[in-house]
Design brief:
The chain has 393 residues and is mainly β. Strand 2 and strand 3 form a beta hairpin. The longest helix is centred in the last third of the chain and has 5 residues. The protein is globular. The N and C termini lie far apart (55 Å). Bound molecules: fe (ii) ion (FE2). Fe (ii) ion (FE2) binds next to loops. The site of fe (ii) ion (FE2) has 4 residues, from loops.
Amino acid sequence: MPYYRRVGDVPRKRHQLVRSSSGRRLAEELMGKEGFGGESSLLYHVGRPTAIVDAAEVPLDNVELTPNRPLLPRHFRTQKLTGGATDVALDRELLLGNDDVWIWWVVVARATSLQRCTVGDECYFVQRGRGTCESVFGALRVEEGDYLVIPASTTYRLVPDGQTPLSCLVLEARGHIELPDRYLSARGQLLEVAPLCERDLRGPEEPLVVEGEDVEVFVRGRATVTRHVYATHPFDVVGWDGCVYPFAFHIRDFEPIVKRFHAPPPVHQTFSGPDFVICSFVPRPFDFDPEAVPVPYHHANVDSDEVLFYAGGSFMSRRNAGIEAGSISLHPAGFVHGPQPGSVDAALGQAGTDELAVMVDTRRPLLIGPAGWAVEDPTYAWTWAGRGPREQR
Ligand SMILES: [Fe+2]
């Protein structure tokens, strides 16, 4: 997150003695990337952010990843993952993953436990529902279509509104999720040519202070969870400032770039992670030359696996392939992919698309998790040919 934000009571100088309005000495916490060498925020706690009174490892099931063998394009139906998840710290469902990013599905039906992720930043995409991300930085409202980026080691919980669960795709990075360098000036301002700007990014606006004793926080690593118990509630921050904090960005605030002839996915890039990118496909006019072919050409991603989460609208290039809102396609390196038969004819002459999708391109092959295998559509690989290995001519 490139720009400075200040919330609540912050003293004039850093690292000076500071007391609360009741005279209690506050405890500073510097939350910084890359040791002390990157962006940071400085938080002012009423209690000690270090005071744990208990710890225990929590067993975790269903986090085994297995290779995409035989190598095939895949279709996963997250619509079938209706959850029953009651705790986002423990009940996520693992779809895909490699050393750089794990991709989960979660249905948050009630307020989650407090948690933090130690592996890296997390990026939620809210497919359905609305609610609040409560964290040590304050409260942040999110709704359908929002990206929510939560920095590593942020203590937070998700609270859905009312009875409607929050259904989210979750990307858990190994490291930090950033805005692409090419969108930023040398000093970090989003450039005029970027498809988003600072005004589109929302952060917490006031402190969230909660009293409590012996409070559980679930600390997540890769395939591990440790339960820490804190002497006092971690939400005791009366002020903070800096450039590290959770923020939200609504996908419809992404300004699409359209060319006369087809533009490849890098024009849709929204965020960068370590060895993966996140792109947003949003409603837009189609390529506008009379001779333009408005759907993608066949392509081989030599150096990446390509994941598309279809969030809404209709997907011209996946015609008659069974893809619906909530579907995920995986097109791995080694497989040439392109529009399904009939897609080009259907697209010719159309003025635009209402598709809404989130793409994740990874530099290393993705393995498939238990939830992915459980909701895979086994017919997808054969939709280009129109027949599969068990079907006769
Ligand atoms: Fe592709």
